[in-house]
Amino acid sequence: MIIKTAEFVKSSGKWQECPEPNIPEYAFIGRSNVGKSSLINAMMNHKDLAKTSQTPGKTQLINHFLVNENWYLTDLPGYGYAKVSKVQRKDFEKLITNYILNRRNLVNLFVLVDIRHTPQKIDLEFIQWCGESGIPFSIVFTKSDKLKPNVAIKNVEDYKAELHKTWEDLPELYVTSAEKKEGGDNILNFIQKTNEFLTNNNISFDE
Q: What is the pLDDT of residue 88?
């Protein structure tokens, strides 16, 4: 997929305030500081589209971007904030949960995982929740440039082994590096093929 246009549409504090759900939507989510904004910017070839920060939890609203004028890329707040109150954390979790369960044009959720770490309980629990809730999702490993290739491969295999304890079939897996702009093309190709499938089969999101 060639990115011709990518523009910010709006930030929403409630899922009901999101743009009209009339075109395919692909959302990105992960723990705070997983490199979500950096990956989005690399994929869109736009340095400042999604706001990056050294402070985990910078994204606190649902941010919509219109790509090529025919699909939405959605930047969701991270889960597992370390430096916010329990009340704020519950508010974020409610915002995320309601969006994921109610957004009828959400075609796929990309769950970002830091490849440098062993499988984290909070990631595994979120992935399990997605599966139990029937949410179509993929797993995206980030920051592969921070590891030697053989270590990165081992960490992915370890993650797959952990998932296989409860999953028979695994979702699509992508290994990415925002720094080196690697792996994003594979995600965009998946989005393009999915959009073509929706178009060819006259699938619409109108109620």
A: 61
